[in-house]
Amino acid sequence: MKLVRRLTICTSVAIGSALAPVSAASAADTVPFQINPAPFGNPNGSFDVPPIRCTAVVGEQPGAVTITGGKEDRWGCLLSSEVLWLNLSTGASGSARLSDGLNGIPAAAILPTGAGQVAVTVIPAVGGTTIPGVATFYVP
Question: With 112 labelled, which of 40, 46, 61, 126 sits at a CA distance of 20 to 30 A?
């Protein structure tokens, strides 16, 4: 299982480095990314399963990033999902879990990544086929 997670991180970093937008943070910047559901194995999704929009918020705290929803009041990212991160500048890595969204508090995870270029992957905890969300950005 650990090998699968490490391979997921490496693959996500490679794909994210090539495809995801890079952002240099000034104050509190947001970097949107999405998770694409693939109902019945269809990677294009369907009308009843839209893409899930998440956001990486950088610059609120030095050396940390908050993964949360991209909708109003930070809602919209999957609850209780696993977040894997890798600091490409220092080699540090780790994982966290998005909160459960109880008591009116949106799902969020604060990652102590340290400063540098960071790659993040969000892996949904729900069953079914999904394409993990990937983003890369600079954390001040």
Answer: 126
Global pTM reads 0.73
127: closest CA among 71, 76, 81?
81
Residues 6 or more apart whose CB falls under 8 angstroms from that of 62 comprise 115, 140
Residue carrying the six token digits 């008591």: 103
At residue 33, the 3 state secondary structure works out as: strand
Measured CA to CA, the distance from residue 46 to residue 97 in angstroms comes to 27
Instruction: Express the helix, strand and coil content of the chain in percent, nearest 5 each.
Output: 20, 40, 40
pLDDT in tens, 23-58: 443 467 999 998 877 666 666 656 666 778 899 999
Could you tell me if 104 and 30 are in contact, meaning their C-beta atoms sit under 8 angstroms apart? no
